Amino acid sequence: MTSLKIVGVPEHFNLPWHLCLENGEFKKENIDLQWTNVPEGTGKMCQMLRDGSTDIAVILTEGIIKDIVNGNPSKIVQIYVESPLIWGIHVAAQSNYQSITDIENTKAAISRLGSGSQLMAYVNAKNQGWNTNELQFEIVNTIDGAVTALTDGTADYFMWEHFMTKPLVDKGIFRRLADCPTPWPCFVIAVREEVLTQHPEIITKILQIINAKTKNFKNIPNIEVQLANTYKQNIEDIKEWLTLTEWSQEKIDLDLLEGIQKQMLELQIIDYVIPASEIV
How far is CA 33 from the centre of its chain? Predict the structure, then answer.
């Protein structure tokens, strides 16, 4: 039995992995795949790939590309979710901010440096025509930390996935000013180079198993009920989210990767572009 560690965010996108694990689908292939939820998100997962505390990460595209460009010894093995991630732009419900223009030159709560919540603040700033050099950040680690920061006023706005954050909007804790979708496929699967070299057949088998699950995921009977119960979501919101979400079973296209890097360079998220072949 080969043991490998995998990490991902505790969000609805990753239920297919948990179903495979619960059904023993990896164990049947002699793979002991150990999942760890990382609520801190992409910045933390990049660090875990770097220090070897995980072997595989289901991770935001922009975050892992930035970290590989900066020396993370990992490779993207395929796209996991093809559709964009819809980032809600949230403020405290009681704040005076009423529109996106009101939060220019204010402080964004982010989970950590290099996280999707930080990188998407640059995307949003560019969309709005703001000076990205003026962006300010408050590190809050998790969504609970963001609740505290926005409520206390130590940060002004917080970008996080629309549907996972919606319960906080419904409860009157956050108010959503707008949405900001990623201009690229949102999640990829990344593997440490050392693991790819040592266990290429195992990684291929893991991808075959998860791809078979995601291909038919939407057709699983009552899957919307399971998603709603597991992630404490309103079932109508889950149904809407399912219509907007497309999983992928494909490798990432090198031209697409070049295009994403060019956009990230324009956004000043990365300082230079590397050959796409060094990322996959």
Answer: 20
Report the pLDDT averaged over residues 214-237.
Answer: 96
Last residue of a domain, one of 157, 181, 205: 181
Rounded to 10 deg, the angle between the 61-69 and 254-266 helix axes is: 80
**12 and 76: one domain?**
yes
Pairing of strands 74-81, 157-161: unpaired
* CA dihedral for 181, 182, 184, 190, sign (positive or negative): negative
Q: Are residues 94 and 134 in the same domain?
A: yes
Please tell me the distance from the alpha carbon of residue 15 to that of residue 214, in angstroms, as a whole number.
Answer: 9
Q: Give the whole-angstrom CA distance, residue 251 versus residue 231.
A: 28
pLDDT tens digits, 9-40: 999 999 999 999 999 999 999 999 999 999 99
Q: Per residue in 184-217, pLDDT tens?
A: 999 999 999 999 999 999 999 999 999 999 999 9
Q: Taking Cα atoms as reference points, which of 124, 81, 82, 128 lies closest to residue 101?
A: 128
**Domain shared by 72 and 204, yes or no:** yes
Indicate whether 93 and 220 sit together in one domain.
no
Closest to 252 measured CA to CA, from 126, 80, 115? 80
Domain count across the chain: 2
- CATH code where residue 128 lies: 3.40.190.10
* 85 Cβ contact list (under 8 Å, min separation 6): 60, 116, 161, 181, 182, 186, 187
H or E element that contains 7? strand 2-8
| C-alpha distance across the termini of the chain, in Å | 27
Distance (Å) of CA 68 to CA 33, 38, 138, 276:
24, 19, 24, 11
User: Dihedrals φ, ψ of 75, to 5°?
Assistant: -130, 150
